[in-house]
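Sequence in, structure out.
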Amino acid sequence: MKYKIFITSTAEANLSEIYRHIALDSPMAARKFIMGLRNKFKTLASMPERCPLAPEDGMDGVTIRHLLYGDYRILFSIDQGHAVILQIRHGARIR
């Protein structure tokens, strides 16, 4: 089954924050990093269940999984053929 990827407005805002933070040192590195994150999202189109449950799992009754990219965690849920990107958080930030 091929899953469609949906990115919430919260996750888009996270991407913007990450970009701004990295761009303070290097706009080119920031663009490259965000492109890498977005490419990582695409891997969820096949077998998103391969990713482990996140520490945030079960909050609000939602099953939350995470996928790692560098020092960041991509938090997502799976819902009716969609992998829904909820947030992107730095790995040091839990909950």
